[in-house]
Amino acid sequence: MRLAGRHLWLGLATAPIVGFFALPILYLVAVSLKTKDDVLDGHFFPTAPTLANWPTAFEAANVVGFILNSVVVSLLAGLLTIVLGLPSAYAVLRLKIGGKWLSDVTLSSYMAPPIVALIPLFFLLKATGLLDTRAGLVLIYGFANVPVAFWLLTPFLRRIPVEIEEAAAMDGAGPLRTLLQIVVPIIAPGIVATFIIVTVLSYNELLFASAFTFSDATRTLPVGISLFQGDRLVNFGQMAAASLAGIAPVYLIALFMQRYLVSGLAHGAVK
Amino acid sequence: MTAFTVDLPRIGESRHSPRSAVLLQRFGRALWIAPVLLALAVTTLYPTVFLLALAVSKSTLGKPFRGFVGIKHFATTLQDPVFLSAIGKSIAYALSTSLLQLALGFLIALLFTSLLKAGRFLTSVVLLPLMTPPVMVGVAWKLILAPAGGLLNGTLISYGLISQPISFLGDPILAWLAIAVADLWQWTPFIVILCFAALSTIPDGVHEAALVDGANSWQRFWHITLPLVAAPLSSIYLLKLILSFKLFDLVYILTFGGPGFATTSAGFSIYRRAIEQFDVGRAAAETIVYGLVIGLATLPVVRLHQRFERREI
């Protein structure tokens, strides 16, 4: 009985918290189902639910194109980040190359706000002809997230017993082979978690994307959505529909990968 | 470490004379960290040098470095009340919202920890705001706070609490509150997850021992739980502080810096100066000033964190 009472109490405390964190997304869903008049009504539920906003949002703006740009750019950037970050994290931790200064510099570089790099990177992309290209964004995001990957991967690497790698070295495997054939399979969940996190960071990024892209062919989703409100007549229903379509890919990832994600975030940051 | 790490540099030894083998070794070792050095060069070293050069020159987005102007941009920046107040607001915002979110996130994590299995499920649920692009967070909150027809105004009016809709984003203080609420919505879950992880590292036996000794729940919290998670909490605060200093997206979507310049954060101000007014020389000077201010503002937290960490060893 006492246990049941305790659970009831905890449940009552939890409900408003979960409600608060669910509300904005649920409201986006509700607004996306409202007619234009209904939106200006101030009620949560649509009085005459309609799906009309969904197709019109996709017609009004190149939403599919924006999502595709975001998906392509963030996936490639995520891959680049892992390819750059994994060997360095391994080298610093296990091969004792670079030492403490490298991890310190890598981490502190992430503390500078991205606005610092905005102007110089603008000129770099302009000089290399990569301004307003998806390749330019891939390179920038790929490089910029290396500290994050470094930081998230290190605890996973640290937990591998050194003996396993020693055994591989005894058998004549070089460090690169040890990394690829022994270490990578063991920490695969950590690599997946790190990949997802850096990919989502790129998918959600607005500052660089809005400064470095200016045509529909390269605009990412956050930039595309922010354009919706540039119009004098903001169509809230369409904006909500387009936003939900853009969130969907990330939520699907989160749904399938939640276990990896929580452990990836948890191990990366609390050290 | 062990024989393993000592043995590694001997790659290719048999095929080369000792001296070239040493060189090859060095090169091979440097190759391992070349990627991260390249990334640091592109995202940190090059921008810093370039910014310094821009800050002392007459530059536009179209034509950089059209002449040396010395410290003129720095002088203008330090005398610009709008920018200085933007910096002040950014610092106040970062320090206070991070502290609030840390407290709230820690409380929720404590609650979830006592829910055991359900708690693990809930930590996954609160992952969603973190995964939501800040732009969409802004859109969702803009819809809720809209003066005409927003959910909040509609609800307040239908309960008779107000008679006229309130323009939440049109009032300087309410607009900051709106940004803070959206920020809290987005980032508190992240803090919950990190605090949850920190709490789960406390061995079970510690609490049981205290329970046997007759400590009540407040004493256990104050004398056991809190000291054990002080170091991770300070590092979480530092992390959130850094994220808050980067505030841009929510301002961009919710208020675009307005009304007037009321919610213009330092980052947003620099963005507009550079990308909309093309005055990159002055924007570069502002960036450097802001970077230094962030460094100074986070220094006490870094020191505190170091103190907690040392105490643990």
UniProtKB/TrEMBL annotation, chain A:
Organism of origin: Sinorhizobium chiapasense
Annotated membrane topology: Multi-pass membrane protein
Primary location class: membrane
Keywords: Cell membrane, Membrane, Plasmid, Transmembrane, Transmembrane helix, Transport
Ranges annotated as spanning the membrane: 7-30, 66-93, 105-125, 137-157, 178-203, 236-257
Cleaved signal peptide residues: none
Name listed for the protein in its UniProt record: Carbohydrate ABC transporter permease
Domain ABC transmembrane type-1: 67-257
One protein family per Pfam: BPD_transp_1
From TrEMBL, chain B:
Record-linked Pfam families: BPD_transp_1
Localization terms from the record: Cell membrane
Membrane topology: Multi-pass membrane protein
Stored InterPro entries: MetI-like, MetI-like_sf
UniProt superkingdom: Bacteria
Keywords of this entry: Cell membrane, Membrane, Plasmid, Transmembrane, Transmembrane helix, Transport
Transmembrane segments: 32-56, 99-119, 174-201, 221-243, 250-271, 283-302
Keyword set includes Transmembrane helix: yes
Family label: Belongs to the binding-protein-dependent transport system permease family.
Protein name: Sugar ABC transporter permease
